[in-house]
Design a protein that fits this description.
The complex is a heterodimer. Chain A is about 70% helix and about 0% strand. By secondary structure, chain A is mostly helical. Chain A has one domain: Ferritin (Up-down Bundle). The radius of gyration of chain A is 17 Å and the shape is globular. By secondary structure, chain B is mainly α. Chain B has a domain of about 110 residues. The chains are: A mainly alpha, B mainly alpha. At the A-B interface, helix 1, helix 3 and helix 4 of A face helix 1, helix 2, helix 5, helix 6 and helix 7 of B. Chain A: Pfam families: DUF4439.
Chain lengths: ~160, ~160
């Protein structure tokens, strides 16, 4: 029984770590992607992109630290990522930012689904909420409607 | 801002920005059938009661949108989409909470038409905080749902600001 419990605990933590690994990869992509977003914006409009990039860097670093504490090798960032569409204007940049935030939201909802501990859920919740709040601003800038989502990160019911 | 390498074919990953997230999305959509997943989805009596409580929180928020709209008809049109999303969130919560039945709730009334927006925003923020607190105590799909709803309401809060 004790061994069964230990096995289940290890499996739970492995699943949580795997989900955190996916969230880390999404954070890496967001940090890189916000460089593209900022480069496509006028200098005076780059503040939001810089703040968002900083937020993703912070989350990235927290996940790396958490995984390292568990002796899990964190996935490194790719050298670059394929863009889903050309980013040639401010609207393109805002649309890419929405893609980045929606992508991280999906990854963090996955962490919530897989998390074994409340501390990880708190981290996921903070990251998910931040992503959606930023996404609302970018959807507005991109001219998308609606600008809010009922269930960010979740697949349609 | 430092210049960045353009996306290109040589030496660049073909990984799309969201490939990893899409994998998680598919798993969430399809669900899993492993025993470990079943264990994660097993709900304790306390968790079930808490989830029912969150249905009540969301019902109160939906009623708050109606009350705010009645107090300020101009606001009603402006927040119609947000109100619809609150209703969608309620439907998903009810589906996730066995035994949840619609109930009549009252959030009270906005103090005045001029204050309807700030009153509604406070209601949205309170519901978001309540769902977030509950999310931390849940697990599996229930935690994911409550976290998503909380995040969605944080977005609404920002929209109402």
């Amino acid at each position: 029984m004790a061994d069964d419990g230990a096995d289940e605990g290890a499996q739970d933590l492995a699943a949580e770590n795997a989900a955190l690994g996916l969230a880390l990869e999404a954070a890496h992509a967001a940090v890189w992607g916000y460089g593209v977003v900022g480069a496509a914006l006028e200098p005076g409009a780059r503040g939001a992109a810089g703040s968002a990039e900083a937020a993703h860097r912070d989350v990235r670093d927290r996940v790396i630290t958490l995984l390292a504490e568990r002796s899990v090798e964190p996935a490194p960032a790719e050298g670059a990522y394929a863009l889903p569409f050309p980013v040639l204007s401010a609207v393109d940049a805002a649309t890419l930012a929405v893609v980045l935030e929606d992508g991280t939201a999906t990854a963090w909802v996955r962490v919530l689904d897989q998390a074994a501990g409340s501390g990880t859920r708190e981290l996921a919740l903070e990251a998910l909420s931040g992503a959606e709040v930023r996404a609302v601003g970018w959807r507005t800038a991109a001219g998308q409607t609606p600008v809010t989502r009922a269930l960010p990160g979740l697949p349609p019911g | 801002m430092s210049s960045l390498p353009p996306p290109g074919p040589r030496g660049f990953s073909r990984r799309t920005l969201l490939a990893t997230s899409a994998a998680g999305l598919a798993l969430l959509a399809a669900g899993c059938t492993s025993s470990r997943t079943e264990q994660r989805e097993r709900v304790t009596g306390e968790q079930a009661d808490q989830l029912l409580g969150q249905v009540g929180v969301q019902e109160t928020l939906v009623a708050a949108y109606t009350a705010a709209g009645a107090a300020d008809p101009g606001l009603a049109g402006e927040v119609a989409e947000l109100a619809a999303q609150a209703g969608e969130q309620l439907a998903r919560l009810r589906a996730a909470a066995p035994g949840a039945t619609p109930s009549a709730v009252s959030p009270g009334s906005p103090p005045s038409p001029g204050e309807a927006r700030s009153w509604l925003r406070a209601q949205v923020a309170a519901a978001a905080t309540s769902h977030a607190t509950a999310c931390v105590n849940q697990s599996g799909a229930r935690a994911a749902l409550l976290g998503s709803i909380s995040a969605g309401l944080r977005g609404q809060d920002g929209r109402l600001a």
